[in-house]
From TrEMBL:
This is Hexosyltransferase. Its EC number is 2.4.1.-. It comes from Blomia tropicalis. Keywords: Glycosyltransferase, Golgi apparatus, Membrane, Signal, Signal-anchor, Transferase, Transmembrane, Transmembrane helix. Residues 1-23 form the signal peptide. One of its GO terms (molecular function) is hexosyltransferase activity.
Length: 338
């Protein structure tokens, strides 16, 4: 065997070895994609007045992910019904049959579990996101927006309600636009082999939360189906980056999506979504301090700043005139095909 063939075999061996070590295939098969159509635990259709919020969580009934669900139910999730929002915790199938029975019991109590027929795994998040998009198309097509979020965030329900009611959310995808180098470190959580993604950098929306206007949902799903490349297992990169670019779906950048865990009242009052604390007890403390405090000075300062901005000739906040809604601005990203 010549040296060139030996080198090819060596590279193939290393590639297979890495896949075995980290348990990843980096992309999903057509058979796996078909599982996104199979609902195990279903819920009722959305009302036309509701905004569905799909919350990614894990198929466990104890520990941090269960505690995060309970924290949401006790805090901003409790506000959801008042503000015409619909919470749905999205999960896969656990490998333990006892857990499956416990999840069904949890669903019977709270009526907010949406389960699909793929194995619960971190690298199946793309399947989870596609599943909820398909479910929303079938069961929530009469609503104007949908929200995807993680279970370790704190959401501002009054702000979301006002944005929805006043139709202040632009068409396309809205969230925090991120630009990062493509990760080529073998073994890293977000490693992406060059053979599946050739560019040196990504532009996408931070996966902890983003909004999608329903007028783009059908086109978004069609783009996922027709995209000729691999279905990658990093969900935010693939869906809000690669697929959005391929389908020319706008990414709208908003500074109201924040990485934040703390007790600054004005940050909490003027943010829509905060990617908060990994410990659910700290997230609950954030929420309760915020709701039990007087945040009037935050609004007063915002109004003052808007007046100063207008006097300087800046009109970027004019659409909020005569509104008590904290400032919420967007910058559309022009997408092009890869």
């Amino acid at each position: 065997m010549d040296s060139s063939n030996s080198w090819i075999l060596f590279v193939l061996f290393i590639t297979v070895l890495h896949c075995q070590v980290d348990g990843r295939n980096y992309r999903h098969t057509k058979e796996e994609l078909a599982l996104t159509n199979q609902v195990v635990i279903n819920q009722r259709d959305c009302l036309s007045t509701e905004t569905p919020i799909f919350i990614h969580t894990a198929a466990v009934t104890s520990g941090k992910y269960f505690e995060r669900r309970m924290t949401i139910r006790r805090t901003w999730g409790r506000e959801a019904k008042k503000y015409k929002m619909r919470l749905l915790f999205v999960i896969g199938v656990p490998r333990n049959l006892i857990l499956e029975r416990q999840l069904k019991a949890e669903s019977d109590i709270y009526g907010d579990i949406l389960q699909f027929n793929f194995i619960e795994d971190y690298y199946n998040l793309t399947l989870k996101a596609i599943s909820e998009l398909k479910w929303a198309y079938r069961h929530c097509s009469n609503t104007r927006y949908m929200v995807k979020t993680d279970d370790d965030v704190v959401m501002n329900m009054p702000m979301l309600y006002q944005l929805v009611q006043r139709k202040k959310i632009p068409s396309g995808l809205t969230g925090l636009v991120m630009t990062t180098p493509a990760n080529r470190e073998v073994g890293h959580k977000w490693y992406m082999p060059h053979r599946y993604y050739h560019r040196d950098s990504y532009e996408f929306l931070a996966g902890f939360s983003y909004l999608l206007s329903m007028d783009r949902l059908k086109h978004f799903l069609k783009t996922i189906i027709t995209y000729p490349g691999p279905i990658l297992d990093i969900d935010d990169l693939f869906l809000t980056g690669i697929v959005a670019d391929y389908g020319r779906i706008k990414r709208n950048n908003s500074f109201r999506f924040k990485f934040f865990c703390g007790l600054d009242l004005c940050t909490m009052e003027t943010s829509l979504v905060m990617h908060a604390c990994s410990d659910s007890r700290n997230s609950e403390t954030m929420y309760r301090v915020w709701k039990q405090s007087d945040t009037g000075t935050c609004h007063a300062n915002l109004r003052l700043n808007r007046n100063r901005a207008r006097r300087r000739g800046r009109r970027d906040l004019d659409h909020l005139e005569n509104s008590d809604l904290p400032g919420f601005s967007f910058v559309s990203q022009t997408n092009s095909k890869p």
